[in-house]
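JOB MANIFEST
job_type = single_chain_structure
chain_count = 1
residues = 259
[input]
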Amino acid sequence: FEPYNEKVISNLREIFASRLFKHVIVNMPAVYAYLINELGVDASKVSFIYAGPLIINNDQAKTITTDVRKFHPRIRVVFCAHCYSKFGIEKGFDVFSRVAAELKNEEFEFVAIGDYTCENILSADTSIEFWGQSNPSELGAILAECDIVLSPNRAFVNHSQFDGFPTGAVIYASLSSCLMMVTDSFDNAPELGLKDCDDLIIISDRVSEITEKLRWISNNRPQAQKIAANGKAKLAEYFSDEYQLSQRLEIIERTLTSL
């Protein structure tokens, strides 16, 4: 989504001005506010239903459990995203690599999933395992081998773009029992009922802050493991058939009835 790209804005205005436009569903609070406040779309024609780009079928959804899972003796911290620039700064890979360097001699292991290599690392004094790219249908099982997903994601680094909250990879990781450590550029967590230090851990892109919070996790494992389970339970509710389908069907029926 590129809210400050003039071409995108022009296209959106044309769509919303069309007599064929009836309703739009968005999956982020920030986008909902933008369409109404910045583009002037009639609020009665905009609905917010939280969602994300997941490849998960109904059978897989039914097998999601929210039991508390213990971390590995050496806590495995995963970074999962596509690489779009030399150091992956829009996704925060530069921060991840510096955190890995800072904590390389402590009780942590650092893993990168995606098209990253050692050439993307800012600091050579680090230790990261590169697991490569993964088929989306297999990603959940791979992420289940990790304990924490670290996402120091930044908005608007790559022109005017920003990602969803959390990113699709972070959602996969949480549903695979990883603790979410994420930036929240638009303060979306409260809108989604996700509480800092209860369901996830909100971070900035400052290395010192992240390392401090990781050390806290290492020293407070039972509490951190409970936070991971709570976050997973919240997201599992959002990606249930009842939540995802019932509201959409209601909007479709209401829209068709009004034609």
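[summary]
The chain has a mean pLDDT of 87.
Residues 221-238 form the longest helix (18 residues).
exit_status = 0
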